[in-house]
Amino acid sequence: MYQKLIVAGYLGGDPEMRYLPDGTAVTNFSVASTRRFTVGEGEQHEETTWFRVETWRRQAETCHQFLTKGSPVLVEGRLKPDKNTGGPRTYQRQDGSIGASYELVAETVRFLGRSSGNGHNGQSDETAPTADPLENLPF
Fold it and tell me: How far is the C-alpha of 95 from the C-alpha of 65, rounded, in Å?
């Protein structure tokens, strides 16, 4: 069996890196992917899905070094079910409603362009695209 999930979105915060006792680097960050759509008489809606991304080894170090809050990324990986529920991790929002976060173990993380943060995402400001890079994806 095989599964692959592709997510394009923006980092919700700066990546957090740690090292395991054997020296293996692990970096975690969250990615928000927002779907915008129109219903009925032109009423605009947004639906945001959050993904918690886990990266390992050299990729973890690179993500920690170059990504910041607001960085646009494309992540390819596999879903990692919650150990307790077998599905997405659930949590209670500040307003009392229930939310879900999907856990994703990254195989590949691609930096898509200039971040809204300090620009440390692998491209200089001179070569970074000025348009929203997520609108030009081929799918």
Answer: 34
The answer as to whether 138 is a domain residue is: no
Q: Please, which residues have CB within 8 angstroms of residue 115's CB and are 6 or more apart in sequence?
A: 11, 67, 68, 69, 70, 71, 72, 121
For residue 91, give its domain range.
5-130
The mean-pLDDT minimum among 10-19, 38-47, 51-60, 62-71 falls in 38-47
- How far is CA 109 from its chain centroid? 9
Helices and strands in the chain: count of H runs, count of E runs: 1, 7
DSSP state of 57: H
Q: How far apart are CA 35 and CA 9, in angstroms?
A: 10
pTM of the model: 0.74
The one-letter code for the residue type at 113 is G
103 near 75, Cβ under 8 Å? no
